[in-house]
Design a protein that fits this description.
33% of the residues are buried. β8 and β9 form a beta hairpin. The protein is 35% helix and 20% strand. It is globular, with a radius of gyration of 19 Å. By secondary structure, the protein is of the alpha/beta class. The protein has a 4-stranded antiparallel β-sheet. The protein has a 3-stranded parallel β-sheet with strand order 4-3-5, sandwiched between helices. α3 packs parallel to α7. The chain folds into 2 domains: 129 residues, 2-Layer Sandwich (Ribulose 1,5 Bisphosphate Carboxylase/Oxygenase), CATH 3.30.190; 84 residues, 3-Layer(aba) Sandwich (Rossmann fold), CATH 3.40.50.
Length: 236
Amino acid sequence: MAGKKYQAAAKSIDREKRYPLEEAIKMVAGNKVAKFDETVETAIRLNVDPRQADQNVRGTVVLPNGTGKTARVLVLTKGDKEREAREAGADFVGGEDLIKKIQEENWLDFDRVIATPDVMALVGRIGKILGPRGLMPNPKVGTVTFDIAKAVGEVKAGKVDFRVDKAGVVHAPIGKVSFGEDKLNQNAHALLDAIWKAKPSTAKGNYIKSIAVSSTMGPGVRVDVTAASKTYQTAA
């Protein structure tokens, strides 16, 4: 059974209404449910078929105000790039030794993995471990690169990867409740702008079908998609 705070928050939301994005975020930020600083999440349903390779929407965005969480970064590399990774602020740096640790000990005390192209053959050994968790380095999102300093810096600054799931939905965080409305709005607009720019040329009809905003423990608030889509369609 839902708690009293959740029930009170849910009662303040008209389930049939589609709110302007700014109003939806205001409601989520104002309806604090948990004692901890909840993450504010978005669920964006796209009019794409993820089974088609050319409609498998994915990309990255550096949120202007970060995510509210400092990601633990693992860099898999060798030679001089190890020093560059450490100087850039990577939490864990290594090569075959750390790959072996992941293989044998199922070590996963990190949030993001960055690798240089020259070690990707070795990284392939742990693809079955990293892949299902969304941790496998990929050149499309900038996590397979020789520019280690830039990649680590972006992740530490609040870089978010987004990818449409099998149901055609992108789930992504836009910060913490404690950020307040202005910062959450800025992050939400940055995310939606990036998703709109990632629109496949083969996608037909209304690209964004629905948007919902919620906090970790709170009820979702539905967003007026028509108004939001016009904003990004004009900017694209």
